[in-house]
Write a structure and sequence with these properties.
Number of domains of chain B: 4
Helix content of chain A: 40-55%
Strand content of chain A: 5-15%
Structural class of chain A: alpha+beta
CATH superfamily of the largest domain in chain B: NADH-ubiquinone oxidoreductase 51kDa subunit
Largest sheet of chain A: 5 strands, mixed
CATH class of the largest domain in chain B: Alpha Beta
Helix content of chain B: 40-55%
Shape of chain A: elongated
Strand order of the largest sheet of chain A: 2-3-1-4-5
CATH architecture of the largest domain in chain B: 3-Layer(aba) Sandwich
Order of helices and strands of chain A: HHHHEHHEEEEH
Distance between the termini of chain B: 74 Å
Structural class of chain B: alpha/beta
Number of helices of chain B: 22
Strand content of chain B: 5-15%
Oligomer: heterodimer
Largest sheet of chain B: 5 strands, mixed
Radius of gyration of chain B: 24 Å
Distance between the termini of chain A: 47 Å
Number of strands of chain B: 13
């Protein structure tokens, strides 16, 4: 919003993927201001699923923010991920209410079922297992998100069934 | 858009409402949505269409009805009935009973303490207003406070009312809101900003997200009144990206308000201009700290800086900036409408008004409540919440990672900022987690220290290194490998981290240890001296020491 409307060389996106237009639209809406870095990274991640190196380089050039700062911001915030997600994503809420109501045992079960640890993707690339600080559905603890669907009052058995199904397919 | 237009919208909405005697409200806030209330709403619409009752029946998605434990909830406003755990199979029965006999077995008694002990100021529209329609908000008296402020009050008079109300910051620290507003209004700057802190990072807290998803216009109205009072023309709402529903409804609300001329240029036909932009947080707890939040809005890493200068004098882009929490802004419209003196009658001597709490953990009635300040913890937990049969209350954790645990013997303490601080906890933003005999207090302390350790931004050493070291010692204790020397090191570390950290995160991080040591020292000793976890949570390794 505070960027000077000065002339600048058009920076081309790293590939001719159409989806870059969405990212460009976000940057344009904020006048390519350096302070729109986080907003832009949100758009990149929403569009491509994660932040690859070339995306960071492109955003750095387009917003004229040093690459070191772009990398710094991308790694500072938990919401951003630099690794591609698996086919399915399971987010276990580890908020206090969920923790008190047994989220830890749900997590351990899923770690075994998917053969991976929290924050990583299963070796076959099928399931990414993430933890959340709090989903804010504490009234229905423990909670988890299976591919965008929030499930409350979760039992280890229910979680096991869902993840096992993903692993087989 | 001016006052007459607002009145016209209200009349029109009332006329439509009158023509439809049956008002079915389906809760579409987060917890009920995860219990598939969206599909339930569709089922109601279909059933009503099937019976040809469209003209007398209105199905409306509304914000939080409060009792999340029994999601999904449906209220028939016209008859004062609340149904709980409603499934699609129940829909025909409920529709059949409209205006006749309500389905008794599904009914939640509204005279239960959970409802009767509450007093709603912020949540007064929740469960009544459609969060996605500005007209509905207007018809319930929305934006009339803004109209009153702009047309009948000078900015100083607005601040005067807020000061008289005794409202204090609901984000946790409890700074007097009127004083903050007055500082920003007196500060000099080419531009001024109003920022809404909606980075509700405390695990176990869902007040702010619920307000934003249930009644977003109330927050916009509060912010706009604040902007008028302090002389700002630009505003930001910093909201967690993890709350997509709140973000979506907030965006809709801003668009609608802009369309009606309630945000933007010449608001409600006056000279006053104010615009609001949303900034998405990206999952950093420290961004709830005001200077870190400002850094994040400016597109940088969210690390705090020393204060002074306070944001009120030098905030966003070094301009005077007013930062308040969601709940604080949501109190403002009622204060302006009914006057500061009215508000000051609620609550206690030093803590006025009402406070929202997110009640969760080992209680029967988990959900969102709003009670007058000064109610005792016992009333909140035992009367409103209720302990499940066969379980023994052990402690209540307030204030999230910055707060502490309060045991049974102090439950008769009235809830206000000072009393909770005296107990070694804090009011915080309002998360309240109830624990019973199945929780190990050392393990709980470890859980919070793990949180603080990974959320420490790393800028100052006491917090970055101290939290990691404290977590190590707690791990040792829960593994049964610790000695009494470790315990004294832990206590020393608490002292150092508390007194030397740069921001609130580090300064309050030891609270979880300090409060559990204060009230549950015997549990620590059992782990260390007898290698035994009284709650049976910690697994001691066989003779590893």
């Amino acid at each position: 919003m505070m960027a000077p409307a000065q002339e600048r060389k058009q920076i081309a996106p790293p590939t001719d993927d159409k989806r870059w237009k969405i990212v460009q639209a976000t940057m344009r809406r904020h006048g390519h201001a350096p302070n729109s870095l986080i907003e832009t990274l949100h758009t990149v991640q929403e569009t491509f699923g994660f932040l690859e190196k070339r995306s960071l380089e492109y955003v750095s050039l387009a917003l004229r923010v040093p690459l070191s700062r772009v990398y710094g911001v991308a790694t500072f915030y938990h919401f951003f991920t630099l690794k591609p997600p698996g086919e399915h994503v399971c987010v276990i809420c580890m908020g206090t209410a969920c923790y008190i109501r047994g989220a830890q045992s749900v997590l351990q079960d899923i770690e075994q079922t998917a053969g991976t640890r929290a924050g990583e993707t299963s070796p076959n690339g099928r399931v990414s297992l993430l933890t959340a600080r709090c989903l804010g559905s504490c009234g229905l603890a423990p909670n988890a998100v299976f591919d965008g669907e929030v499930v409350g009052k979760l039992t280890p058995a229910e979680a096991h069934k869902r993840v096992e199904g993903w692993m087989k397919k | 858009m001016n006052g007459e237009d607002l009145a016209r919208i209200t009349d029109e909405e009332h006329r439509i409402k009158k023509s439809q005697p049956h008002q079915v409200h389906v809760c579409v806030a987060a917890a009920c949505l995860s219990a598939h209330s969206e599909g339930l709403k569709e089922a109601f619409v279909k059933e009503i269409k099937r019976k040809g009752m469209e003209h007398e029946c209105k199905v409306k998605g509304v914000g939080c009805l409060g009792l999340c434990a029994h999601a999904p909830l449906v209220s028939v406003e016209s008859e004062g009935v609340l149904y709980r755990n409603v499934t699609a199979q129940d829909v025909p029965r409920i529709v059949e009973g409209l205006g006749k006999e309500p389905a008794k077995d599904l009914q939640e008694p509204l005279n239960a303490p959970f409802f009767s002990r509450q007093y709603k100021v912020v949540l007064d529209n929740c469960g009544r207003v459609d969060p996605e329609r500005i007209e509905d908000y207007v018809s319930l008296g929305g934006y009339s406070a803004l109209l009153k402020a702009l047309n009948e009050m000078r900015p100083t008079e607005v601040i005067e009312q807020v000061t008289r109300s005794g409202l204090r910051g609901r984000g946790g620290a409890g700074y007097p809101t009127g004083l903050k507003w007055s500082t920003v209004s007196k500060a000099l700057g080419a531009r001024k900003f109003v920022v809404c802190n909606a980075d509700e990072g405390d695990p176990g807290a869902f007040m702010d997200r619920t307000i934003l998803a249930s009644d977003p216009h109330k927050v916009l109205e509060g912010m706009t009144i604040a902007a008028y009072a302090v002389g700002a023309s630009e505003g930001y709402i910093y909201v967690r990206a993890e709350y997509p529903l709140a973000v979506k409804r907030l965006k809709t609300a801003i668009h609608q308000a802009e369309r009606l001329g309630i945000l933007g240029k010449n608001i409600l036909g006056t000279e006053f201009n104010f615009s609001i932009e949303i900034r998405l947080g990206a999952g950093a707890f420290v961004c709830g700290e005001e200077t870190a939040l400002l850094a994040s809005i400016e597109g940088r890493r969210g690390t705090p800086r020393p204060r002074p200068p306070y944001p009120a004098e030098s905030g966003l882009w070094n301009m005077p900036t007013l930062i308040n929490n969601v709940e604080t802004y949501a109190h403002v419209p009622r204060i302006i409408k009914e006057g500061g003196d009215w508000y000051a009658k609620l609550g206690t001597e030093k803590s006025k008004g009402t406070k929202m709490f997110a009640l969760a953990g080992r209680v029967t009635n988990t959900g969102l409540i709003e009670v007058p300040m000064g109610m005792t913890l016992r009333e909140i937990i035992f009367d409103i919440g209720g302990i499940p049969e066969g379980h023994q209350f052990k402690a209540v954790q307030t204030g999230g990672p910055s707060g502490g645990c309060v045991p049974e013997q102090h439950l008769d303490t009235p809830v206000d900022y000072e009393s909770l601080a005296k107990l070694g906890s804090i009011m915080g933003s309002g998360g309240m987690i109830v624990m019973d005999e199945t929780s190990c207090m050392v393990d709980v302390a470890k859980y919070f220290m793990d949180f603080c350790k990974s959320e420490s931004c790393g800028k100052c050493i006491p917090c970055r290194v101290g939290t990691a070291h404290m977590h190590d010692i707690l791990t040792k204790i829960t593994n049964g490998d610790a000695t009494m020397n470790d315990l004294s090191t832990l206590e020393e570390l608490c002292d150092v981290v508390r007194n030397t950290s740069l921001c609130g995160l580090g300064q309050t991080a030891p609270n979880s240890i300090l409060s559990t040591l204060r009230y549950f020292r015997d549990e620590y000793l059992a782990h260390i001296q007898h290698r035994r976890c009284p709650a049976g949570v910690c697994k001691m390794q066989e003779e590893s020491a």
